[in-house]
Amino acid sequence: MKKSWVTMFLPNDEYKERQLLYFIAEAFVLFIGFLGVAVLLNRFLGIFSTEFSYILLGVIAILSLYVWIRYILSGMEYANVVEKSEYKIELKKTIVSTSKFAVLFAGVAIALKVTGVVDYSWMDLLAMTLLSSGLLLVAQFISLQRSFRKNRELS
What we know:
- The chain is an all-alpha fold.
- Helices cover 77% and strands 0% of the residues.
- The protein is built from four helices and no strands.
- The chain has helices spanning 14-45, 52-74, 84-115, 122-154.
- The chain is flat.
- The protein starts with 13 loop residues before the first helix and ends with a helix.
């Protein structure tokens, strides 16, 4: 596997690399199945009236979310968290990184609003910032919890 261009996107840890490759392979099979069903439905029922690029973007988003959710639920993100003190340290780091993300997201959203690139209300921008950072925090918390439990079982 070391001769593939994919390795630059994979973690250095052998176990994490193998697990992530399984998730990517599962996502690819789901991708092929989805495209096959979409082609058949469009061919016989003509149900897709939107542009193909929107469908393609939707598929890419679904596959990305699939791999990300699988990675979160696997419990392998925080391999060194075994003790309660390590858990608390990682939890604080998670809260700080999510806060940084929220500030960055809000900054970009405000810049896009001010420059006129997007025409959302201020309430929409606030809601998007809170929703995205909230979902990120929940995802990271779930990953930390699962990793902590898994590591405690292994030790």
